[in-house]
Design brief:
Blueprint (H helix, E strand, L loop, with lengths): L1 E13 L12 E13 L11 H12 L5 E2 L5 H4 L4 H15 L5 E8 L5 E4 L2
Parallel strand pairs: 1-3
Antiparallel strand pairs: 1-2, 2-4, 4-5
Length: 121
Amino acid sequence: MFELIIDTDFAAAHNLRGYKGQCENLHGHNWKVQVVLKSEKLDNLGMVIDFREAKKLIGDVTKKFDHTYLNDMEHFKAENPTTENISRMIYRELTSAMPSGIKVEKVTTWESDRCGATYFE
Ligand SMILES: Nc1nc2c(c(=O)[nH]1)N=C([C@H](O)[C@H](O)COP(=O)(O)OP(=O)(O)OP(=O)(O)O)CN2
Ligand SMILES: [Zn+2]
């Protein structure tokens, strides 16, 4: 079994509806995102997937967040843009975009150096 690990980041603003405290106010984070991909097989080049292709697929998902106010996104009208929900959204969108035979193992998103959330199925 092989695992690929790809890190990226984005900057965005949000506020947490219903939160009793400062996080209900508009504020921002420099989120870091780590995606782990898993595959049993390699292609004829010896790759699970070209890192360049993986970065493109991941970027297609995360660029929607970059320099935005996350609460304005349709997705985050129904649920709060917490780190947990951001990880799940990235996981599911990436799973839909991934070529067959490559599984998105988990997505971890950090809103600071010390706090992050992982989603996997
Ligand atoms: N489980 C979660 N808890 C919290 C989330 C979250 O997404 N998942 N988000 C927040 C807020 O985004 C808030 O911005 C973070 O609050 P806090 O940890 O207090 O942020 P600080 O960087 O100021 O933390 P310090 O350690 O005090 O510097 C809240 N909780
Ligand atoms: Zn926050």
